[in-house]
Batch of 3 targets.
Target 1
Amino acid sequence: MIDLHVHTTASDGLHAPREVVALAARAGADVIAITDHDTAAGARALGLGTSGARSRTIDGVEVVAGIEVTASAQQLEVHVLGYFIDASDPSVLRFESERAARRRARLERMVRQLAAAGFPIAIEEVFEQTGGEGAPGRPHVARALVARGHVRSTREAFERLLLPGCPGYVAYERPSVREAASLITGAGGVAVLAHPGLDRLVDRIEQLVGEGLCGIEVRHSAHDPDVTEAFDRLAQARGWLRTGGSDFHGLAVEEGGAIGSVPCPRGWFEALRRAADRPAGAPKREAQR
């Protein structure tokens, strides 16, 4: 079983990296990719990036160093997955530092706006939701709002308070899709468009992949069978790499599915590995069976 979309407490997951690996082992996973939002800290916590290592086996599970970069295209939020990156690459570390500073400034504005709208929370309450790790984002704000009793669920928090146009929403500058792809490929990785069905990017997939990406996440916990089949056909027709994963965030979290609930076929994964192993500057795409 292979799951190429997993989060830890390095971003908005509920479980620390070592705990995630233990959960994966218990679920019978052979391979997982740690793909935290805008950081590879979760991968580094597992020893990835040491001497350039981009994957390693822990407790019988191959763990791939990854990242999920939040990018922007024509004012749309777009997520770009990176696989087999060097988690300690200087460009990745610089990106993480810059993103963390921007997230902190954004968080302070969100807390002020929420208080003005009658939903007060302290910034310390948001940081508590990170478990002392990672840079807080909207999911942590949503959990703090639930803990305070302002809303019943994180879904309600987003729909009422945290989405664009809502009282607590604060926009912030994001890299372009091409910049996200450049960051990932510059760190030795392969860049893939994340969950295009979830983000309603169907009409823009070809344009976005053309910005330096190598494939798309065909299988995802939010893609229904018809959407999955359509993406699979499109990727095969274009010769794009295909990936799949649960988007696991935690055992008691609304986002995503359980580890291994949306498995990636072995052939897709091995094609991804071969693409990552090609020399810098060589084409990353190949036809997949």
Target 2
Amino acid sequence: MEKSWWQRIFFWHKKTIQTSLGIYLASDGLWVHQIDSDQDDIEYPLVNDNLEAVISQILHDYGPSRCYIILSAQRYQLLQVDKPAVDGPELNQALLWSVKDMVSLPITQLHIDYYESPAPASAKLNVVVVDKDYIKRLVHCFFDKGSEIAAISTEEIAMSLLASEEPQAQMILSHYRGQDLLLTVIKNGQLYLQRRVRGFQELETVSADELNFGAADNLSLELQRSMDYFESQLRQAPVSSISILTDGASDKLAELVGVNFNQPVVSLPKSSVGSKFAQLACANLLNEVDH
């Protein structure tokens, strides 16, 4: 797709920005990772939606920066719709009308983007919907401080950077505090399946002992449901591995879930999930935007 309006407004910026940041914009704070730096990742808490003040502090600390942002799930909606029988500029307009009854905002306030599933059996488009006013506000927070946004992405797309570009499908379970679980399946470096699962918003607070009493088994059932859909509806071979990205007792969770599957189940290394998403933002910046 062509560049979004928020990317085009930076076209005249002088290429003097030396610092590149990955930022994970969560509901309760911003996590920042700097490329080519030994500095620890930093969390900047959000209080009463003080977005301007927090971004101003980040850019004061790091200086003018080129930023890749990953939005947390509360900042957008991801909807699946039937692919319209139009192309080009007409497609965006058709998608707006397809999603207008699924969202609470008026159609004039929607900014959308979309991506297709690489699965041959899928006739759906995945449409990302954000509040246009919020995106404008976010863009100007950086623009007014002499910085730029290279791109804005979602948690689902970021998951493709956690999996290797192998022909075998890999399932990833990720969870950030206070959010629903995200289950994704990646194959050949592409996102084939994404699904949000309710009921595990406080997974990071569950102790290793508590996981033994049903939580791990309940989670295993949700994983199996997604795997069944991937095989039967998308007509794909079974996933070859399961990876878990969550705070809390993630090693114990991987151990208990692994009992229920033939595939290897591992806990992904990280200092925190928020920090990992900020690092993935930088990886996406290097792998995609500069090419």
Target 3
Amino acid sequence: MVRRLVDRRVSFTHLCTVFLWLVTCFNGRNAVKIVKVVVPEIIQYGVQDAVILDCDYTYGNNTSGLMVKWFFKNNARPVYQWIVPQKPQDMGILRGRVDLTYRASNDPLKMHRALRIVKPNTDISGDYTCVVSTFMEEDSRTKQMTVFVPETNFRLIQNKTDDDTVNVICAAEGAFPAPNLTLATPERRLDGVAHNLKLVNGRYSAVASVTLNDADLPSPAEFICTLRITQANYAVRKESIYYPGPISTTPEMPTAADMQLAAAVGSKGTNIYTALSIFLLPAFIPALL
């Protein structure tokens, strides 16, 4: 009696295993599966005319309802859609910015799987999700792309408002994503640095400033400002030499670049002292870096 129960259990287990194997084989023959998504992590603005985001996949015997969609960030509506065998469509932020004639493959079930975005700008930086589906199956993958812009103006400024202190100001504009500014000497990173950041027309202006006592500085003193954009693995630096002492009595007129940078950081909500310091800098020191 016990042996019969054991045999029945073994037979039932065997049947379940065979059934699951058959189901797996059936689904595998009809499944759609993404095998590779190629999205460049970083591209530099203005360097290339277009960027390609590719989404390669395999498909089974049943391709009814085959569709490729691309989503931008967390938006519920796609920015690109191709329903086989119809023509592809661009939508949302990518409307009018995708080359709809581009073919990533000669396979009629894969040819319009990719995005060829023309003249990429910073507003298309973010996560891209490719979704490939049929009436039976669906698969998706997500990757991030950043359109990087180096700074257009970068200055390290010494501004004296009295004989005993110096304002060290580092300012940059025109960068994307948001740059990080650090002020330091060759020996240490400076403490008490104030930071301001502003986004205008898709580009960031950033200011880092600190006031130091001449008595705490060697003569001469060296200041270093480093601008970093971590996402792009990008870093540049400026260096300046400062000689503690009285305010210079030989003023210079502000340059056009000084006025432009002051305007960029001196809007409502930005430290007005910082903006004026940048604007009036040439009146206080004989040269700019």
